[in-house]
Model the fold of this input.
Amino acid sequence: MKKLYELLHVKKEVGDVGVEIECEGEGLKAIEDFGWTSVSDGSLRGEFPKRSCEWVLEKPVLIQDVKSYLQELLKFQSKAKFKFSFRTSVHIHINVQELTVDQIINMMYTYLLCETALMNKCGKSRIGNRFCLRLEDAESLSFQLQSLIRNSGHFLFRNPGDAVRYASMNISSIWKYGSLEFRGMEGNLDPDRITNWAQTLVNIRSFACKFNNIQDVHDFFVKSSPKEFFNAAIGDRAVDYIYDELEYDMRRNFSYTIDLPYAYKRPVEEVTKVATSDRILANWIDLPGDILE
Done:
């Protein structure tokens, strides 16, 4: 199966991660060095670049190099006074150019299953924020994803554009940059925090590539406990996100996303067996039975 860069007919980018950091404050400086560039962002308050600025990596970098790029940016802004208001955020782009369409769909589904737990660590101002809506905040993303999955053979013709731009996972960047954009993290310039968040998302990408299609990911969830699934998906960063209600929230996210794996065209002989497993799981998590109809 062809990879995304082959389908898009673009030159393959080597790096794993792109970073965009929005900031307000005093004494900010535009940077055009160390791999960074600066842009004016109309959603921020204050004149550009001294009082508002967005710093953007010019191209994707390897995950192991993210922290050093952030440290250089922090040093360059050493005399600035940062004010990370509710308007500011950190956007992480995960390069998916070398993934197949099915692997990209796997990654999107895995993220949504884990979304509540992940967003809990992104900052209170980002929960329900209109610029990074979770699936539970806005159902339109589910409809867009169902359409995309149902027509995965015509993936390049399904670009949803701005209809999903302000979801916590912006899928429209796939067509624009060959990346999945994650908009959940609140504004900050902490190299450790941002690097750990980027590593979490790269781990999800690695996990997604282990499965043939979205229904295989779904089956793994059904056969595992929610915590086992989370640990497998998030890998070495999972311990940072564990909390008492994690399993409940994972089961709830499973119900929010239940239509996605069934939008995929599965061999008929497998459908009955998996549907039965879902019915058992629905009873276990005390969800209305008709949610699986």
Q: What stands out?
A: The CA atoms of residues 64 and 195 lie 9 Å apart. The beta strands are 17-26, 36-39, 52-57, 81-83, 89-95, 169-170, 179-186. Confidence is low (pLDDT under 50) at residues 267-293.
